[in-house]
Write a sequence for this structure.
């Protein structure tokens, strides 16, 4: 386990995150690192934004799935890395129109 992964795990444990949340967040950060082939602490906020759009537009992930990924990466940036609050935007969920 890398020191960054261990630190993120410790940060989530101290905050009382559920096991499934920890797994989801760590998976999100791991996928981000694999996408760019480098450590997540070397990835910029703009690259995260580009990756989220790729997941939604190219891979076809739902809004809910992209939102889970966003929260995991945001936790890494804000809590583990201590960076300013990043604002990642993902396409919103499509609203269903009710026809009367």
């Amino acid at each position: 386990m890398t020191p960054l992964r261990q630190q993120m795990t410790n940060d989530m444990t101290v905050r009382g995150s559920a096991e499934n949340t920890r797994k989801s967040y760590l998976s999100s950060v791991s996928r981000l690192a694999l996408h760019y082939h480098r450590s997540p602490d070397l990835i910029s906020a703009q690259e995260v934004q580009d990756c989220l759009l790729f997941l939604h537009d190219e891979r076809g992930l739902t809004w809910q799935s992209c939102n889970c990924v966003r929260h995991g990466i945001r936790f890494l940036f804000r809590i583990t890395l201590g960076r300013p609050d990043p604002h990642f935007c993902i396409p919103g969920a499509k609203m269903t129109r009710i026809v009367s």
Observations:
- The helical segments are 3-14, 19-36, 45-57, 63-80.
- Residues 8 and 80 are 6 Å apart (CA to CA).
